[in-house]
Specification:
This protein is α+β, with helices and mostly antiparallel strands and 597 residues long. It is built from 19 helices and eleven strands. Strands 3, 4, 5, 6, 7, 10 and 11 form a seven-stranded mixed beta sheet that branches.
Length: 597
């Protein structure tokens, strides 16, 4: 497994120099404590824990996996102890509001912590990661009593949470779910059904597990209009908040799977388990969106995590591995061959990884800040941040996981045949990264959400909110040193709006046109969004170099990587543009029977 060193310099660059977090948080009520110094200190502390405790368990966790018995699930050696340390140090409470017993640090820090734990050990990070979604759901939709009863221990990390949506017949189309919820005379419900693929559904890391479950009342309308949301704890919780009787929800099996093997993926059987309604009857799916949006941003970070780890491994290897000579003359004349980093194609792979990782970090931290503005800000600013989150979350989820997987693959490629061999750990990164494009809504489903609900569904308003910001940035920096970035960005930004109009018009005549264009539209949107962040990073780097700041190499590297992104990765938009404009006919005209030939 490549050794993981947290890229603290780049994290500080994004948090402080690019996004001026201190400046923002001074203006957000309740966030004033988040000064640059405090943010940096927290990142440094989290880095130690992730590098020293979590990263060493990444490979062993993959080798050992989880163990199931009828009594429960045990996680790989060291996982439980690492979790206890995490809890003892107060990490679960970091970005939870003080009114819920948390430390009240901004959501941005939650995103950073997720990146660090996830890069060190994605499987491990899923256990606390899901708790955060459960906390947000109860905070937003729970009654005062539910908050009182469950939040405290979820926030300290003594208990963990899950998200129970999927059933064997449905993952994407939750309107098909069958789990039943029968009202009971004491005001609770009896939940019966089987959920599959439930991450952290059962494990030995915490005393209690709070399941957030979607189920259907007996007289509920069919489809998504008839789904309600419930809290189903593994152990019932008494009035004084202590743990009572064991509830009748049990893990029937864990899945054997391609990657993230140390994360328990559970079949959960609910047999008249006691559950408590959250929010209104039949409005469960809307409430669940709180959980899903938190989880989607968390999963987007998985693309960054695997891309970063793979890059760190590939870079080290490319400097050490000797093969052939540079065609422009030996670079390692005393050795038998040159290190492979001299070859253009190896540099293409490394720079692709670097550009995606650093660009994605900027994109995700920006979203972390938007969620803080939406939560703590007021009026128009809060609404604008909320709109940006709505538009950009599906782009981040799908684009960053797709490019993160590409990066993981490239890292393996840099190792040649050794990348395919287990002991180097690069193949584990590929296996672990693959799930990110599937769960929390596949790439195809994110793309439909983007083009359908967010872009066309808002009459273009949400997209315009973002393209206006890009337009203003391009205007502010036109004619300056950053022209090589700003000029193409301005053109793409304009084209993004034009393409949307064309697809919107085509979709009015034939609804299949939107679905046919969706993934290419999303990828196009992802490349343009990342171009915006790369252009912003280039502007900061140019300013710093001009002002003679120290750390010149860091800023020079940023500029070179920005240039690589604009010249080599951004042109991929051309293919996506052609594909999305080619229309639905080349997909839909072929009779289904012809697929056999
Ligand atoms: C390791 C792992 C962990 C998981 N953790 C959890 C968890 O904690 N909680 C939970 O509830 N679930 C969890 N899941 C389930 C996961 O979210 C679902 O598998 C995922 O949402 C896809 O659903 P599905 O598997 O039923 O695929 P389907 O819905 O059957 O989709 C199959 C294919 O059809 C495509 N498709 C479907 N409908 C459309 C459409 N209208 N337009 C275009 N394409 C379409 C999909 O994109 C996909 O490619 C997990 C899954 C795995 C493998």
């Amino acid at each position: 497994m490549p050794e993981y060193t947290v890229p603290q310099r780049d994290i500080r660059f994004v948090m402080n120099e690019l996004l001026d977090s201190e400046g923002l948080y001074q203006t957000l009520p309740g966030c004033e404590e988040a000064t640059e110094e405090l943010l940096n200190t927290i990142v440094a502390e989290a880095s130690k824990f992730c590098e020293e405790v979590l990263a060493p368990l990444n490979r062993s966790g993959d080798e050992e996996g989880c163990h199931w018995t009828a009594e429960g699930v045990t996680t790989p050696a060291g996982f439980k102890e690492a979790y206890q340390q995490y809890v003892d140090n107060g990490w679960p409470a970091l970005s939870v509001g003080t009114e819920s017993g948390g430390q009240g640090m901004p959501n941005l820090l939650g995103v950073v912590l997720n990146e660090l734990t996830g890069t060190a050990n994605w499987s491990w990070g899923m256990y606390p990661g899901l708790s955060l979604g459960a906390i947000k759901t109860i905070e937003t939709h729970g009654t005062a009593e539910q908050k009182e009863r469950y939040l405290g221990k979820l926030v300290t990390g003594e208990w963990t949470g899950t998200m129970c949506l999927t059933e064997s017949q449905c993952g994407t189309d939750l309107g098909l779910l069958r789990t039943k919820a029968e009202p009971h005379s004491d005001g609770s419900y009896r939940i019966t059904g089987t959920k599959i693929f439930i991450s952290a559904g059962e494990h030995d890391m915490a005393d209690n597990i709070v399941h957030i479950v979607l189920a259907r009342l007996p007289d509920a309308p069919e489809g998504t209009q008839g789904i309600s949301l419930f809290i189903v704890p593994k152990f019932l919780v008494t009035e004084d908040g202590s743990m009572g009787e064991r509830n009748s929800v049990h893990c029937g099996a864990i899945e054997k799977k391609m990657g993230i093997k140390a994360s328990a993926t559970c079949v959960m059987n609910f047999e008249e388990a006691t559950g408590y309604l959250i929010g209104a009857e039949n409005k469960g799916l809307a409430s669940m969106f709180t959980f899903m949006n938190t989880a989607r941003l968390g999963t987007a970070t998985q693309g960054l995590a695997h891309g970063e780890l793979s890059y760190q491994g590939a870079l080290k290897y490319a400097r050490e591995r000797l093969a052939m000579r540079s065609v422009t003359g030996p670079k390692n004349p005393d050795g038998p061959a040159d290190p492979i980093i001299v070859h253009p194609d190896v540099r293409r792979m490394l720079l692709t990884q670097k550009a995606f990782a650093e660009g994605s970090r900027a994109f995700l931290y920006y979203l972390g800040q938007r969620s803080d503005i939406a939560e703590f800000g007021e009026g128009e600013a809060a609404q604008e941040a909320d709109d940006l989150m709505a538009l950009l979350t599906p782009i981040a989820k799908a684009f960053i996981t797709e490019t993160g997987f590409e990066s993981a693959n490239l890292g393996m490629q840099v190792y040649g045949g050794h990348g395919f061999i287990r002991e180097w750990g690069m193949e584990q990164i590929v296996r672990d990264a693959r799930i990110a494009m599937l769960y929390e809504g596949t790439t195809g489903i994110q793309a439909m959400d983007l083009i359908g609900r967010k872009v066309l569904g808002s009459g273009g308003k949400l997209l315009m909110g973002f393209t206006k910001i890009i337009h203003q940035f391009c205007k502010d920096h036109a004619g300056g040193d950053a022209g090589e970035f700003v000029e193409p960005l301005a053109q793409y930004n304009k084209e993004w709006g034009e393409l949307t109009m064309k697809i919107g018009e085509a979709a009015m005549a034939n609804p299949d046109e939107a679905g046919a264009a969706a993934v290419d539209f999303l990828m196009y949107s992802g490349y343009v969004t990342l171009a915006y962040f790369w252009a912003r990073m280039a502007v900061v780097a140019l300013e710093q170099l001009e002002q003679g700041a120290g750390d010149r190499e860091f800023y020079q590297a940023k500029l070179f990587t920005a240039r690589f992104y604009f010249q080599r990765l951004l042109p991929r938009t051309l293919v996506h543009k052609e594909a999305m404009l080619s229309g639905a006919a080349n997909l839909m005209d072929m009779d289904e029977a012809l697929f056999d030939f």
